[in-house]
Amino acid sequence: MSSINIITEEFIRSAAPNAAAVTNGQKISKTGGFVKLCRSEDNTLIFGECKGSGKNPYYTSADFSGDSPVFRCSCPSRQFPCKHSLAIMFEWIAKKEFTVSDIPEDIISKRKKIAPKAEKAANPDNTVKKAPKQNKAAAEKKLKKQAEGLDIADGFVNDLLSRGVSSVNSSSAAQYKTLAKQLGDYYLPEPQAIMNEIVSAAERLSAAPDDDELHRITALLIRLSSTVKKSREYINEKLESGEVLPEDNILYEAMGGVWKLSQLKEIGLYKENAEIIQLSFTVIHDSIHKADIDTAYWLDLDSGEISRTENIRPLKAAKYIKSEDSVFGVHKIKELYRYPGGMNRRIRWENAVISEPDNTVFKNILSKAEESIGEAVKKAKNELKNTLSKAVCAVLLPYDSIEFAVSDKHPILKYGNETIAMKATDNYPDVCAVLYASDCRFLEKGAVMGELFYNEEDRKFYLCPLSLVCSDRIIRLC
Amino acid sequence: MDISKFYALKDRLYQSAAAGTAAVSEDFRLKRAVDEFEAEAAGSKAYLRLSQLCRKLLSDCTPSLLADCIALADAMTVVQGTFSDNSESEKSSFVCDDDISLNIPYSEIMPYREYVKTGGSSLENAVHNLKGGDINSDPRIISAFISSFKKSSMPHTAEVLRYYYGKKIIPLIKNTLDLNDPKTKGHAVSFVRRLARENENEWYISLYENADNPPEIRAAAVRALSCDMSNTERLINIYKTEKAKLKNAALYALGELDPPEADVIWQKLADKYKDSSENYFIASKSRICTEYIRKELDGAIYDYKNSSDSEKSRRIFTLRKMLVNKADTDDIYLKLMEAGFSEEELNNILIANLLNENNKPYRDQILRLLPENDFFRRTGVVFGILANPDLFFLQLSEHLSPSESMELKYIGDIKWCAALEHYMLCLTIPHVAGTNDSPVIFSPVSEKFPQSMLDFVADKRFFKSVEDIDRVRRKPLGQLTAEKKIGGKDILINFYRNAYNLAGSLCHTLIGLYESCSPEDSGRIRKAAVDFAEYVCGICPCYSSIRILTENKDISSPHAFVGLLERHTAYVLEHMDHNIRYRAWSSMVNMFPMTNEEKLSELNKALAAADNICKDKNDRLYGGISMEIKLSVEAMKKTISTGV
Asked: How far apart are the CA of A320 and the nearest CA of chain B, in angstroms?
């Protein structure tokens, strides 16, 4: 059981389904939307009456009597929490007067209904539901189907390489698109997405030739080819050995598999009692998957490992999926789930206790920086040379100073005898300009969290800076 | 190993992918690349592997093999990547603020960042949308502000943020100026000029002297040289030797600087005046230009009044424009005033002159002109607000006047700026006297809203006189004004219609004040607004007074709403030109703090009042008002019965 005292602005933002709901909630609070504000004597419930568009007010409450807060409102909105529930919490943090009142009967009865569920959930062995027993036969069938689909994808790659990427015209593009559509029947959404991107890009290329774009398409094609090859090996191995269920392998996701937390737990991909802190947050538009992705990098305060969270919001379903936002506190997590992968694994969790970081936390972060730039680049090379890896590698690099080139003002990180240039990327186009606008006092003796990437044009590694870590703060650049 | 052979091979492999494997066997360039690479590959296992694969590719080219070759080449490229950067570098010297709040959520900062990047659509928009607190010190916002200078016009947000950032932003602006892009605009230079003036003189000179710099940057730099008299010789030289933009910029700068050495240039231009000199004469402070106006004035006024030649008769307007930036032109203003020129346009010139950096001569001119005639009242109001708003409005309240619109207009231009935590006068002077310029006055007024200003707006004394008139109100509308002394002060009293307009203007102004004031002043201003609105509603209720009460019903008296609609209806029908849209009024009853039954009762009372006044009148408009009230009555009855 918690109490209404955990309500802070950060809590409200994290509970809200999206930023618009926060804004609307704030507006209701600021314009005096509530005609009645009450709280329970035990400080587990705030409730009130809010003016709505209709004749009767809405009855709104935020209930903290359980492990998780429950938001209730009589308004017709299907969003939870709705703007009225958010507004009443804003009223609370604005220190408006809440009359101590008896808990309404309907809330008492609702509480009674959820009590047995809460009791079951409180069992420490049941933090995440056990994975349902998987049907091996179904899994095997699926793998075989996927193998057939890979043949189609392979055929596409061969055809395109055989004729040449430049040969794609509108007629061949239409045929390839049909082929790509077929992959949907073979449980291969990821290869399908890459195929679609290749075909669309190649079609555009035929209208407007561009060497860089040609290079990009070829790289995508090679990536698809590698995916097909490795996936085929993976499937064959599984079918031969009989171990058909998902395991710790990135190919499961590469072929379009979606991990459940219970599955990750079952194969041991989790860490208990983790403490992590977010170092950067942004929203990236993924044109291949036609989705917005809320992407954040997190540092494990114990191991120093940098992981990432991704909240994928397909554009078609954007309004139904809650968007995430940046957070600033230290997250203490009972069970932190880790996806298969190399560096910067994806992580997920269900509940976290958030606390305000103090200077010891920042100093701890600084201590987790890489030994040297060379070491970090070495790790990145090892990761990035794999065709299936992402094109970037997030690292925490220490610096003695960050300076700016006299010629074109590009930032340069200096640490000991080593230097590395910093450069913006398409996903973070303004970071170098933001770095330039940062107070110079923070450009000495700190650490930069950023993405190392390889630039084809000049054959060098660059760092795309995402945040500065200082002894008393984190400065976000994006 | 000659690494270039490896990269050449890689390029050829990509070319093969573009052309297709069918062409590989005949691709002699690929063969050559493979041969040359093979010769270098011996020292490395990975290179050897690639070499072997590529050799196989030449004889037995399959798409799969080509893909493998490219994948391996890509992996090797990454492994070979370097990272050091030994460019000459320097440290930043930009210092912002120590205690900035950095925990601003992405969802809040990103839209704000995008807004700051756009520069705002107007000054008012910028004042309204720029946030308070430390968010403007976030480097993401600072960099967005810097990038707004890339727009085609000076960002409106710059007017506000120059106060916020002050001179500390100058190094950042200077260092981020893109001198390599020939299309870079000169706004950033103009901005620095405004903030730093002669302190950056060397920088302006260096920008001009580098002939490789973008032309607009050089022009802005030349213009900026007007900051210091020591640039006189340089400017004259530029004027004489340069062409086009630079020459023009030098002439403008000489006009702003007004050194005696430039008199010969102005004299030459005046002697052989051409229309193309007009803008320079407008911008110039030179006494030569003033003398030119004086010399031409009488003839131009004569032509304006008598000539049938349109070009001749419009000459006076050109001369009027030239009054901008000219002090010691009192006689000219008075002549133009006597000739019947627009009060607003002449005053706008005087107001715009206050924007000059050293505006003492212009202020002195205003102080000379003000006592001459109420014609310059408008300038006096702006001058008073800028000089000492508290004192100004205290003095103004000693003298009641019905021409309140001017004061109210400028009071309405005083806005709370959250970013600066200050009330600012935000005044755009539209197209000063026909020029293309719309100068902007953005000047601090006070930290708290001046009480004397509030008292001025919420002054009930004028309506006391209306009450007196109302006692004998059945005078015909043809009777205009009556002089009456109240408390020993002479005032002009207008008839009912002006009382109604005045009430509306004052209430409208009060609404604007409490909607745009600081959070600290909100309670005080709302209270004054409610108090005034309740008073006005008792005498001549108007739309705005009713709106004040309904928007602030938490602090207005409940009884203020009882009988309000009835009083308003009676007032409108008895005193007014009835061409008023009444529907908005009767719908306002929905906002009254009453039960639906009470609201229905109010509507019925209003309807009765309307019917009573209209019963002897066969007038469509009278009937129209009654009909609208009836519709509201019916709607309310339905609401009561259905509960919807």
From this structure: 17
In a domain, A243, yes or no: yes
What confidence tier does A266 reach under pLDDT thresholds 50, 70, 90? Answer: confident
Of the candidates B76, B92, B143, which has its C-beta nearest A433's C-beta? B143
> How buried is B481 (Cβ within 10 angstroms: 0-12 exposed, 13-18 middle, 19+ buried)?
exposed
The helix or strand, by DSSP H or E, that contains position B470, with its residue range, turns out to be helix B461-471
Contact (Cβ atoms closer than 8 angstroms) between residue A478 and residue A428: yes
Chain B residues with CB inside 8 Å of A473's CB? 102
Most confident of A355-364, A383-392, B101-110, B618-627: A355-364
Q: Is the pLDDT of residue B246 over 60?
A: yes
Whole-Å CA distances, A258 to A312, A386, B628 = 12, 22, 63
pLDDT in tens, B331-372: 999 999 988 888 888 999 999 998 888 889 998 998 888 876
Nearest to A282 among B63, B79, B106 (CB): B106
Burial A94-112 (b: 16+ CB within 10 A, else e): eeeebeeeebbeebeeebe
What is the domain count for chain A?
Answer: 4
B432 vs B357: CA distance, rounded Å: 18
Question: In terms of domains, do A210 and A243 share one?
Answer: yes
Write the CA distances from B23 to A7, A216, A396, B8, B60, integer angstroms: 68, 21, 46, 18, 12
Tell me which residue of B17, B2, B112 sits closest to B65, measured CA to CA. B17
Q: Does A57 score more than 80 pLDDT?
A: yes
- Tens of pLDDT, residue by residue over B198-226, are 999 999 999 999 999 999 999 999 999 99
Same domain, A292 and A354: yes
Helix, strand and coil in chain B, % to nearest 5 = 70, 5, 25
Rg (CA), chain B: 36
The chain B residue lying nearest A206, using CA atoms, is B18
pLDDT at B619 over 90: no
Kindly list the residues from chain A whose CB atom is less than 8 angstroms away from the CB atom of residue B101: none
- Domains of chain B: which residue ranges? 3-79, 108-299, 347-448, 449-642
Mutate to test the interface with B, among A29, A218, A377, A435 (most CBs of B within 10 A): A218
Q: Above 0.85 for ipTM, yes or no?
A: no
Q: Taking a C-beta distance cutoff of 8 angstroms, is the pair B260, B272 a contact? A: no
Residue B269 amino acid letter: L
Q: Do B63 and A430 touch (CB under 8 A)?
A: no
In this prediction, residue A421 carries a pLDDT of 97
Best of B107, B141, B173 to disrupt the A interface (most A CBs within 10 Å) is B107
**Interface test with chain B among A161, A206, A343, by most B beta carbons within 10 Å:** A161
Q: State which CATH number among 1.25.10, 1.10.287, 1.20.58, 2.60.310 fits the domain covering B108-299.
A: 1.25.10
Quick: pLDDT tens for A301-332.
999 999 999 999 999 887 778 889 999 999 99
CA–CA separation, A449 vs B109, rounded Å? 20
Regarding beta strands B414-417 and B422-428, do their DSSP bridges make them parallel or antiparallel, or are they unpaired?
A: antiparallel
Residues A239 and A295 in one domain: no
Residue B134's pLDDT is what? 84
